[in-house]
Amino acid sequence: MPCNKAIIMRTALLVILAVAAGPLHAASFSLGAQAGFVPSLGGNLHSSTHETIGVYNGIDGINKSLDGYDTSTINRLLGASGGIVLKATFYDYFLVRLGGNFTMDVRGGSGTTLYDTPAPGFTPELLDCTYSMYVIDAPLTAGLAVPFWKDVRIAFSCGAAFAYGNYKNSLRPESGGDVKGKFRGYGFPLVLLVEGDYFLNAKVSITASLAYYRGSTDIRKDRYRTDGDTDFARIDFTGYRFSMGASRHFYSR
Amino acid sequence: MRGVMKTIKKIILRVLLVAAIAALPGGAYAIGEIGVGFNLGLTYAPNNTDDIITRYNSEMMTTAGADVDQLKSPYVPVVGINLRYQFNYLLFRIGCHLATPVVPIKGSITVAGNKNNIRISAFQNSIPATIGLLMPVKKRTYFYIGGGGTLHQAYIKISQSAPDAAGIDIGDDNRKDSYFKTFVGYHLLLGAEVPLSEKVTMTTEWIHQEGRSYPINNHGTDSAGNPTSSPKKAISVKGDVLLFGISYYIQI
Amino acid sequence: MRNNRSRVVPRLLTACCAIVVFLVPSSARAQQYLGVGFHVGAHHDVGNMSSYNSGFEIEPQTSCILGVSFKANLDFLFLRTGVDIAFPLTGGDVLENSDPTDPVEKYSISYTGLPLFLGINFPVFDIGEFYLGGGIAYFLATGTVTHGGTEDDISASALGFGFIAGMQLRLTAATRLYMEWEYIDARSGATMNTSAAPATWDNLYIDFTGHRILLGIMYYAM
Fold first, then answer.
1. Which of A149, A237, B239, C208 lies at a CB distance of 3.0 to 4.6 Å from C186, suitable for a disulfide?
2. A144 exposed, middle or buried (CB, 10 Å; 0-12, 13-18, 19+)?
3. In chain A, what are the domains?
């Protein structure tokens, strides 16, 4: 009987190799590098501590201004991203794409606003706010590539990414008592992607890609333990990402 | 102000007319064709259920002394059919796409031995009518971009087993919140099509949809099990979908 | 006077478009470097008021866009800029408000956008091209917001970031029909008080974030 089991295993292996051999034989591969940007990295970065000062939509709603107070707008984070892309195209039209990206905030996320202190009546006080975030993600998508002429290929694909995020915030009233939040976590956001390759020659192409991520971690608990405040937030990966780069193509046929 | 709006509307109508006429002159593949297609695709948290899930999870996690099993936002398959008419550079497409989570969205909160099970279900049926521009690359190979109106049928139901248990105050404190509405929205579409055979093609389409119902009455039950119509809520269908499809062409 | 103008402007614009499309002489050009286009478009849910306050159940504002665009092509790269003016087609209404501290009732926002995108052209023979780019946009807005029974004027500005995906189809050697999908993410700082308590600080911001679809005709001068 063990002999039969071994035969079944070997036959299965041969069948898998035979099935895989077709697509692999008819495949082309490429390895590329891309750089781009992510508007609204982390979304509105809302956390439960914001609600204690009457803000229910995170960084968007925290902005207040009043004559006599020197405030500055706290903008959503703009992320800059860089990464690598590995693509395999089977039978000209079928694409599998694996990426690896690092994204961090490069603009926004800091400024001075006002909040109404718990003291009776309207007692505004200046509040310095700082937000920062970075994301490491690996999107795996599959889809359809449309090659035309000799020098252009456009592909649509969808799938999911493994995304790890690290988000920090700090709310510092003028009177002191810095409240900080630090969150880490991972999620598997949906990824939709359209990408174009413009071939400079048979081996090298310039690429532009537009990706849409949607998803977040579950609600995470603040990792700062020394500020006397326990904050809760999710790390939101939702948003559009635009990138440009170059790819080197390897052909198996 | 009314005069200015009238002028703007006239300008828009006339530019659209000129654009439509401009798209008509014959090209290399100047034929009218009708295609019938079947679509399969992927989206995430239809009817913005991820917003509800985040709110409920946040309320559960900030409840003192709670043992929480958080709700998870679902990946959702989309199934649909479409009918398309292509004439020169113009594309007319009408579709019907249904999205509903296949895995139930479930979570719970337990406070001092009292357990409240929460369950969310949703479906979205979209009927987008698109007018777009079509770029013929070669025979039965196209790129297209377009936009149009969408008729949405959207449904959300949130059930809680013990919303009024001691120490628990999640959501709107009802046993069941149920909303259903048919309404009109908008969409943008980006797509490509490649041939499989003389009459069969494969398509891929990225659809961004926007739409929001008027606030609608709850068809729910309160914590005592009595019918309730509050709170009024709107359903938002804003989101993106990627669809793959197979189309069969009929020459006319 | 206004009636005359309202009749003349659309006719003039139609005539210009028709001239561009039908009368411009056809000549073969290997590369089209610099184009100027006129477009109309739409932007749904201007202001994103339900994102500003989750207690608002709204009827979103939809705006129409009239604009001029400039596109410079250099081999596979393009630079696209222009001016877009958005007029409200339907004003925004807050139909249900569960937040008594912020009694916004109606809003109507007009804005001018100045986008600048850089990206890659994907040409298709001599039929046209598909293009994809990312960039920035600067917005200037004016409008009115009705809150607590009073209507106040509002003005705001913001810088945003986003993308453009478009397609151009060749009509003649120098003219193209184009359709574009633009997304920009931009919000102003707090510019107006609408909150009932406290009734002194500015809390309302204008959210320009959204998707826009544009349809137009471009003439390549070079």
1. C208
2. buried
3. 27-251 (2.40.160.20)
Q: Which domains does chain C have, with CATH numbers?
A: 28-220 (2.40.160.20)
- What is the domain partition of chain B in residue ranges? 31-251
Q: What is the pTM of this model?
A: 0.88
Which residue from C44, C124, C167 is facing B145, i.e. has the nearest CB? C167
Whole-angstrom distance, CA of residue A211 vs CA of residue A214 = 10
Looking at the domain covering B31-251, what would its CATH class be? mainly beta
Amino acid identity of residue A152, one-letter, is V
- Give chain B positions within 8 Å (CB) of C40: 11-12, 15-16
Alpha carbon distances (Å) from C84 to A149, A177, B167, C11, C212: 34, 46, 53, 20, 11
Q: What is the DSSP string of C136-157?
A: EEEEEEEEEEEETTEEEEEEEE
Tokens found for residue C103:
């009694």
Contacts of B250 (CB under 8 A, 6+ apart): B33, B34, B35, B36, B199
Nearest-neighbour CA in chain B from A160: distance (Å): 9
Q: How far apart are CA A48 and CA B55, in angstroms?
A: 11
C154 bridge partner residues: C143
Residuewise pLDDT in 10s, chain C (222 residues): 444 544 554 555 555 444 444 434 333 344 688 999 999 999 999 999 999 999 999 999 999 999 999 999 998 999 999 999 999 999 999 999 999 999 999 999 999 999 999 999 999 888 899 999 999 999 999 999 999 999 999 999 999 999 999 999 999 989 999 999 999 999 999 999 999 878 789 999 999 999 999 999 999 988
Chain A partners within 8 Å of B72 (Cβ): 218
How many helices, marked H, and strands, marked E, lie in chain C? Answer: 2, 10
Cα B216 to Cα A70, B126, B177: the distances in Å are: 43, 19, 11
Q: Neighbours of A (≥3 Cβ pairs closer than 8 A)?
A: B, C
Interchain CB contact of B59 with A (< 8 Å) = no
